[in-house]
């Protein structure tokens, strides 16, 4: 009994437990069919998240395996760096007089991993990984093959590519399945971005842990927000074909490179615009609020105040809640790229920084709603109305999944 009490008060673990309950309460409040929620399936999914976090963070074998995977990602980054140095020369050396140039050191990694993922998909490695997770998770959570497959794929691929895997099933998906597809897309990161954030200095071990935890997490949160009331066509274990979209290895590399290049350009342009707009908005807000308060409140100050309460409930100590709340606000209002860049600069404790790594590890932001509507809507036009109607609900779901991951992980830190 004394051990339990000591554990609960250490690092305010009892608050993290309250935070987990609060997250589920919020999901329940916004549920569209509360009577159809299956508590035993939700409990199974939550147990899976706890076991994943415990295995990776608190066992020697788990730490070893995922430490080796993290080293593997770092090695792949070094391979990408060889190509970067060949093209950009001394500009690619972080210790040169030019210093660390983000556009040269980071963005090309997205291009490299875009090609690598396409190559791995062509030879069937990704399909094997995704089908394996689908085989393990679907029976335990009672989720359909299509939504589980998509959720599993989102741990490696972007939401558009994951939806493409079940393109032939999209038009037949139930509303519950479609929301699960949207939430899983918003609550995970691609392998290429995990590599990018790792190269920036975000702990790769925790990025990987968060990505895997989000698979069962996205499914259980979606099944609270919109429980299944119909009969999915893939619920009986119907096999889903994962057809290749490339003719040969060179075609796969070419398509993957082009796709990665488009993403890299988009990310670079987005960062230029959004960081500039944040600076402008910050300046205006300080000037306006400075009329009434001394000192005035900037953009980060307002976001921090708005989200500080939930930060406290996921295990962030009180002195860091405002700064952490600002990071979550940046992630939702802008994107996780900007939030992670800010995380590397903000003055918070090491433990708080790790917890925030989980809290912002996902695509749940306003711009991704548009991406999902455009990508999935083009593949399944009949679902466009649903996508536009429930875009904000999917954003809520993705955010809750990330916060749930953070609260659970904080119990093992």
Describe the structure.
The chain is an all-alpha fold. The protein has one domain. 73% of the residues lie in helices and 0% in strands. It contains 21 helices and no strands. Helix 8 runs parallel beside helix 11. It starts with a helix and ends with a helix. 47% of the residues are buried. The model has no long low-confidence stretch (mean pLDDT 88).
What is the structure about, briefly put?
This protein is mainly α and 413 residues long. The chain has helices spanning 2-9, 13-29, 39-58, 60-88, 102-105, 107-123, 125-141, 145-153, 159-165, 167-170, 175-186, 191-200, 204-225, 249-289, 299-313, 321-333, 336-343, 350-359, 366-379, 384-389, 391-410.
**Rg (CA only):** 21 Å
Q: Could you give a short account of the major beta sheet? A: none
Helix content: over 70%
What is the ordering of alpha helices and beta strands? HHHHHHHHHHHHHHHHHHHHH
Could you outline the blueprint of secondary structure elements for this entry?
Elements: H1 2-9, H2 13-29, H3 39-58, H4 60-88, H5 102-105, H6 107-123, H7 125-141, H8 145-153, H9 159-165, H10 167-170, H11 175-186, H12 191-200, H13 204-225, H14 249-289, H15 299-313, H16 321-333, H17 336-343, H18 350-359, H19 366-379, H20 384-389, H21 391-410
List descriptors.
single chain, 413 residues, mainly alpha, globular
């Amino acid at each position: 009994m004394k051990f339990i009490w000591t554990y609960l008060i250490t690092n305010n673990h009892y608050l993290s437990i309250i935070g987990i309950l609060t997250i589920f309460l919020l999901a329940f409040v916004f549920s569209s069919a509360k009577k159809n929620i299956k508590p035993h399936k939700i409990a199974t999914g939550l147990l899976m998240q706890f076991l994943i976090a415990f295995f990776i963070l608190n066992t020697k074998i788990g730490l070893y395996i995922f430490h080796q995977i993290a080293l593997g990602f770092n090695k792949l980054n070094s391979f990408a760096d060889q190509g970067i140095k060949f093209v950009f020369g001394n500009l690619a050396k972080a210790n040169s007089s030019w210093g660390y140039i983000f556009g040269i050191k980071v963005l090309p990694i997205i291009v490299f991993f875009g090609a690598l993922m396409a190559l791995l998909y062509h030879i069937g490695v990704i399909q094997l990984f995704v089908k394996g997770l689908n085989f393990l998770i679907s029976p335990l959570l009672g989720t359909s093959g299509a939504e589980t497959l998509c959720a599993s794929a989102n741990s490696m691929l972007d939401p558009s590519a994951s939806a493409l895997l079940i393109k032939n099933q999209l038009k037949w998906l139930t509303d519950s399945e479609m929301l699960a597809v949207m939430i899983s897309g918003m609550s995970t990161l691609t392998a290429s971005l995990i590599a990018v954030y790792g190269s920036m200095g975000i702990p790769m071990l925790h990025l990987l842990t968060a990505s895997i935890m989000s698979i069962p997490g996205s499914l259980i949160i979606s099944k609270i927000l919109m429980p299944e009331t119909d009969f999915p066509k893939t619920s009986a274990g119907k096999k889903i074909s994962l057809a290749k979209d490339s003719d040969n290895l060179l075609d796969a590399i070419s398509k993957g490179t082009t796709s990665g290049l488009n993403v890299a350009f988009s990310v670079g342009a987005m960062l230029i615009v959004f960081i500039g707009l944040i600076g402008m908005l910050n300046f205006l807000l300080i000037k306006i609020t400075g009329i009434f308060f001394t000192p005035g409140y900037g953009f980060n100050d307002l976001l921090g105040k708005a989200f500080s309460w939930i930060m406290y409930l996921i295990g962030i100590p009180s002195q860091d809640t405002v700064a952490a709340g600002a990071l979550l606000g940046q992630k939702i209002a802008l994107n996780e790229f900007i939030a992670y860049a800010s995380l590397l600069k903000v003055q918070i404790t090491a433990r708080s920084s790790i917890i925030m790594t989980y809290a912002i590890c996902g695509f749940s932001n306003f711009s991704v709603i548009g991406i999902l509507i455009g990508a999935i809507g083009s593949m399944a036009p009949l679902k466009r109305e649903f996508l536009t109607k429930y875009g904000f609900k999917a954003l809520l779901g993705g955010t809750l999944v990330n916060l749930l991951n953070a609260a659970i992980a904080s119990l093992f830190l």
